[in-house]
Fold:
Amino acid sequence: MADPLDPHLLVAIALACVALALIAGIAAWRQRVRHRREVEVLRRRKERLKQALWATGERYWDYALDSQRVTLLETERGNGTLRLHERDIDLEQVLLPGYLDTARERMAAYLSGQARSFEYDMRVHAQDGRLRWVRVRGRTVEFDAAQRPRRVAGTLVDITRARGEERDRRIATEVLRSMSEAVSVVDADFNFVTVNPAFARMTGYTAEEVIGRNARVLDSHQHEAAFYEHIRKRLVRSGRWSGEMWQRRSDGEEFLCAIEASAVVSDDSEDSTLYVTVLNDITQQKRTEQELRYLANFDTLTNLPNRSLLSERLSRAIVRARREGTRIAVLFLDLDRFKDINDSLGHAAGDRILRAAASRLQQTVGEQHTVARLSGDEFTVILEGIDGPQDAERTAREIIMAFEAPLLLDGRQEIAISPSIGISIYPDHGQVPTELLKRADTAMYQAKSAGRRTFMRYDDAMDASTRQRARLSAGLRKVLDRGELRLVFQPRLSLARSRISGVEALLRWYSDEHGEVAPDDFIPLAEESGLILEIGEWVLREACLTLRRWQQHGAGDLTLSVNVSMLQLLRGNFPEVVRRVLEDTGLQPSVLELELTESVLMANAAQSATTLQAFRTLGVSLAIDDFGTGYSSLAYLKRLPINTIKIDKAFIDGLPGDPEDVAITSTVISMGHSLGLRVVAEGVETEAQLGFLAQQRCDEVQGFWLSPPLDAHSALGFIRNWDGARQAPRAHASSLP
Structure:
């Protein structure tokens, strides 16, 4: 029988069991505490992951290489809490075509060690159906026993907005580079930070030459330094400035530019303020604007105001006159027979005449008065602050006197030309510019009708005259078709032989509508309209036919004088017209005498000499009509192939009592004889006049003393019946050699 256990041993064993149990409990407790701590750490880490993913907008992805499974872990907020959401991704459904293959190639390159990490920007279909750009980054997070990658994980972030901003930056940069405007950025001290290529093209400074330098390098001498300083202070104060200023290129050339400047603050620090300036070179634009403004308001030929500026100035003058209770005069000028001179000398010479006339006109009236060119050879003068019509008339006389001296072209060629002037007065003749100009124009035409080289002041009766003039002009176009023209012939007496030596053919117009129309009324209209060419040829042909019939009736020893206008002389080939008419009518050239006024010949003596020589070559005689009323040049007179001088009636009227007429007439007769010319006196009406002319050995006379103009039948009868019955008063003629 065994001995009973020692009680102490039993106690010890029990205590040991208790100790072991206690130790095991403590260990289990510690294990539980450790587990709880690990769970809490994992919870905290998960929470932080959720917060990090939410805060950064990133998502976590996991790629298992063996299963090719891609898992996406993303956060979502609901009921005020953040939750992690895990979902599998089908790359073929998410990635756009082309991006999947590239993603696989990039992953293969990473796994093979060619890249240190996997990174790729790709375009995907988002859950909301829109296309988004995402940036994917990752690395291997798990290897197998052979240290081969098993899992790759990383983050994914939406970079759509960043890509858009980057695209916008690229576009902005490219736009900046391609802009034709010069763009520069300066810092708060106005030192250049950057410039675009256009800046270099415009200023001549490259980016390397100006970056770091102050913008004062472009300051021009056109402005004071204080001007630029003031502009910069305004820009700093308001953050924006726009305007125009002169700048200077690198070579020193100055240019005008339009500037737009504005401040750009990149953060809250005042030191970070930058100023962006856009410059446009507007030098040529401003020059063009000035040229267009000049063209819109000034005549380029004479540099005088044109019709537009004249109307504007006249309107302002009327406003001032109405306010101050003063008067205005409008002078409308037209150069007499300018069209004929222009046609004969050519348009280049015509332009020089207009420039010379404009200069003389402005010098005459003074710079304080507006002188404008309306068109062609029409000029207008505005006289402000006049006391009455007499002031306007005095100025008109001064203008006419100023044109007494010929215009000098190119310092060598003299051209005699005169103006006809019409005058209207504000407020007497009109309240607005159009009325004043129209009535001054009407008065000018009356001045032309009165014989040119004079002035007329408008009155109400002129409107009726203008309307009549218009009706005559319309009727004149039909005279040949209607057969309303006829010729009359005024005999010419040879004092030496006391017999009728010839006749002058004179044109008459009788209209059923207008009655007998005076030549002074319709011939100027024919010249202005150009109808004188057709009418003139009719007159020449009809006169030659008449003389040819007279010759067939025994009146063979007669000359025929026919008047020629400037238009006939200067336009076309008038010598050829004369040759053809003589040939058609069978008339000998020696019996034809063409009469040209002195003003016609002297207006263009050089060309006239050439044309007149062609007439002399034909065998036709030439006469200067109305001698003494124009601007004679003895030098030209000597060179012109003239046969006859006809003294104007104005000098005959005062004979023999007027000393001036006596002196002029006797001088002209002596001068004509000294040049070997025949001298004819026109407008002889009294025995006393005839006696004086016979005493002075005048060659021929014509006028009412001898006979008025007669129709062809009566003229032939007068010539045949001339029997010397009225020779007693011409006794002086019988003593002539």
User: Anything to note?
Assistant: Residues 22 and 627 are 161 Å apart (CA to CA). Residues 723-737 have pLDDT under 50 and may be disordered.
